[in-house]
Amino acid sequence: MSRRLLLLRGIVLVTAILGLNYIVWRWLFSVHWSAWWIAVPLVIAETYSLVDSLLFGMTMWRLKERGEPPPATPDQTVDVFITTYNEPLDLVLDTARAAVAIRYPHQTWILDDGNRPEMRDAAAELGIGWITRSPDWAGMPRHAKAGNLNNALQATDGEFLLILDADQIPSPDILDRTLGYFDDENVGLVQTPQYFVNVPESDPLGSQAPLFYGPIQQGKDGWNAAFFCGSNAVIRREALMQIGITRYVHEIGVGVDRALRSARSVLTAARKDLGDDEVGVRKAIDDVLYDVGRTRREIARGGALLDATYRFQTRVAEIRRQLVAADLQLVSADLDLIAELDQLAGMSDQSLATVSLEALDRATARDLSPLGAIEAVEALIRAVDVDRSDEAMPVMPMATISVTEDMATCMRMHGLGWRSVYHDEVLAHGLAPEDLESMLTQRLRWAQGTAQVMFRENPLVQKRLSWPQRLMYFGTMWSYLSGFAALVYIAAPVIYLTLGVLPVQALSTDFFIRLVPFLVVNQLLFFVAANGRPTWRGQQYSLALFPVWIKSVTSAFGNVFLRRDLDFSVTPKERKEFAVARWDLVRPQLIAMGALALAGVAGVVRLAVGQASWLGTSLNLVWVVFDLVIFSVIIRAVRYRGFEPPDARPPDPSPSDASPTRAVAPARQPDRQPARQPASRRGSHRGER
Amino acid sequence: MIELDVTTDRGIAVVVPRGRLNMVAARQLRQVLADIITGGTSRIVVDLAETTFLDSSGLGALIGGLKSARQAGGDLRIARPTPEVMTVFTLTNMDKVLRPRDDVGSAFDV
Chain B within 8 Å of A388 (Cβ-Cβ)? Predict the structure, then answer.
């Protein structure tokens, strides 16, 4: 074990012990219950932060520094995918040219979701492939980047895939440095860092994520949970296809079960309305009902699902044929409803496995003639049956449950027993948004995607993941909940300084000797983990973007559970005009800063007139100043005017980075994604008072 | 490389992939299946007795063919998988969805 790791583990242990000691004491002995309305939120926020710190400690426990990669085995087949939706042609072509120049033999493809003729021509000129959606996708949910990749998977056949965002310029040795890991047949993914070249040293928008693409991914790697971040990664095709097949099997299983249950209620309802004389119809419905039951039993006994539905379809079709002659006039009235059912099956962005039973029932609760009921049942089963008529492709390797497909896909990959590798070497150079609005949109999108996965496929209940893997995925999601804690951390000092309400029972010696050592070792852990990488910007943004984190969680909740629209925002394509500073984008932060500053003044006044204690006031003033320093990054961000390359550029591995066209903020439509921790938000645990 | 033999008899097409049904062969198979269906035959048996290897891409091609066949009013059945191929079915749970038949001739009987 390296000395660094030993040191890290020592600090992790001490941090955990001190943290638990503090928080237990807080809950049991120090909550100021009479001021519960602030005392309880505060102790909850502190608990949140401690859990965050513990998860971080666990990540660091197995920090894995892989060093030199194994050499790439020759003669493997590789497809290089460059995904694009609406990025400027030049930007994509710069990447494409760099991709062609990758030394290991490969085939380069532009995955052009914008279906642009000029892109096709340019690709032909470069002698590389150009892939657009196949006709199967007409009228189907497109699933953004995940759909784009799924479509390309079907059109290519390389053993490995290198996935690049349109603005990520690969180094010529990117494959030589990554393919060797796949000699281990269980490795499904190798992720490398995302690094941005159009970001000044000061990184005013917090674009780089040095802690995430470094110690955090390395720590996750130690637990076999390093995850896919959407670009700059090599994936084994077999691993992806296997995900697609198992998901397909799972989803038709769920879908058929729901459809059969729904079918029974439709038929039972239709049967009730029958007159006594309608003997033939009653018998037909009874026959179909019997078949519904028989099919369900067959499946329950482990009979092959598609065989069961096929037999069901055949029998029902026969029953209906016999009935049609007798009941022709009733048919037309039901056609609308049947169309509606078909539509339901094709509901956008919902795989049938996720269409709720209630939704099916609502659509089928309407009065149906008996024949209509039978036809409806047929349509229902057909919709969920093998043909997956709601999706362009029956097999969708890339997960489509989230606007950020990468993390969800990788979690499924780990669930199937594949291993992942994080190779900590910058092998591609990309572009970050250069204006505040694009940056906020991008962060919101990543956070929403992560929250969607948390709600839809919570890692804690994924039985096929090991517990450490579950916690590693969950840790990333947990960190996105920080917005709620931030609210409390802003409110608590404001409340003390203006109203004199203290959320802890006393600022006693007991309090300080428990809290201060914990804060110190926690910062130390952060410092040692970072190993010289800049982390302050990340810490600032983890608090300063609290409105974004809150919105991401609430909107994803609304989307997953209340079926609301995600308010899906498109990251603006071109760099914004910087004539006007966009203070409006950060109104909540400005209000928070104003409140903190005013509370500081009020606190001083209260102290001067003898209404407050020295200790409490000075402590809270320090807290206010700390918060304000954190928030000051927002002012810098609003005033930032975009990247200007210094005249004397440091030696740059990719020649085209400095070209003016590439100084355009990357276009981000449904296509961008890295599910990233809100940069490096560690050490922001502040149990202060 | 893979050889894909196709014979059609009494409205049922029998496809025999000989060799490794991997990601490269999968595209060929997908094309062959699509051609059979556009050619008007929607009942297909894929005889896997001489398929020495099957990966998830191969399975994907079978599922794609199944979808097209059913949309055309027919079905796709698989027959006689070797133990190696059967492992892939079990691994992905495909065996819970599609039951391999023991015999090509009777694949469409039940």
Answer: yes
CATH architecture of residue range(s) A78-241+417-466: Alpha-Beta Complex (3.90)
**Can you spell out the DSSP letters for A281-319?**
HHHHHHHHHHHHHHHHHHHHTT--HHHHHHHHHHHHHHH
- CA A344 to chain CA mean position, Å: 26
Is residue B77 classed as helix, strand or coil in its secondary structure? strand
Nearest to A581 by CA among A642, A665, A663: A642
Contact A246 B63 (CB under 8 A): no
**Residues on chain B touching A157 (C-beta within 8 angstroms):** 23-24, 26-27, 57
Chain B CB within 8 Å of residue A339 CB? no
Mutate to test the interface with B, among A306, A313, A315 (most CBs of B within 10 A): A306
Convert the pLDDT of each residue in A150-163 to its tens digit: 999 989 999 999 99
Q: In B, what residues contact A, Cβ < 8 A?
A: 23-24, 26-27, 30, 55-57, 59-60, 63-64, 66-67, 70-71, 75, 91-99
- Chains A & B: contacts with CB separation below 8 Å: 78
List chain B domain ranges: 3-96
Residues 305-324 of A with CB under 8 A from B: 305-307, 310
Q: Is A165 helix (H, G, I), strand (E, B) or coil?
A: strand
Report phi then psi at B16, rounded to 5. Answer: -120, 100
Domain boundaries along the sequence of chain A: 3-64+469-642, 78-241+417-466, 244-384
Q: Is the pLDDT of residue A450 over 60?
A: yes
Percent of chain A with pLDDT over 70: 82
Question: CATH topology for B3-96?
Answer: Transcription Regulator spoIIAA (3.30.750)
User: Any idea what DSSP says for residue A463?
Assistant: T
pLDDT (tens digit per residue) in A534-551: 888 998 999 999 999 999
Q: Would you list the DSSP string of A534-579?
A: --HHHHHHHHHTHHHHHHHHHHHHHHHHS-------PBPSSPPP-S
pLDDT tens per residue across span A399-408: 887 777 899 9
For chain A, state the CA radius of gyration. 29
| pLDDT attached to residue A360 | 52
Nearest CA among A415, A413, A416, A443 for reference residue A191: A413
- Rounded to an integer, the average pLDDT of A327-341 is 52
- pLDDT higher than 50, residue A145: yes
| Tokens 């579950």, residue located | A470
**DSSP one-letter code for A174:** T
Contact across the interface for A245 and B27, Cβ inside 8 Å: no
State the average pLDDT over residues A77-83.
97
- Token pair for residue A442? 């991008």
DSSP character string of A366-431: S---HHHHHHHHHHHHHHHSTT-TTSSSS---S--SSSSHHHHHHHHHHHTT-EEEE--S--EEE-
pLDDT of res. A272? 77
Confidence label for A667 from pLDDT (cuts 50, 70 and 90) = very low
Residue A575: predicted pLDDT: 55
User: Is B55–A307 a contact, with Cβ atoms under 8 angstroms apart?
Assistant: no
**A670 pLDDT higher than 60:** no
Report whether pLDDT(A343) > 90.
no
Three-state secondary-structure class, residue A7: helix
Minimal Cβ distance to A237: which of B23, B75, B93:
B23
Lowest mean per-residue pLDDT among A388-392, A418-422, A658-662, B105-109: A658-662
Say yes or no: A303 contacts chain B, CB-CB below 8 A.
Answer: yes
For residue A516 the two structure tokens come to 């201060």
Tell me whether residues B26 and A157 touch, CB distance under 8 A: yes
Question: In this predicted model, what pLDDT tens digit does every residue of A47-76 receive, in sequence order?
Answer: 999 999 999 999 999 999 999 999 999 999
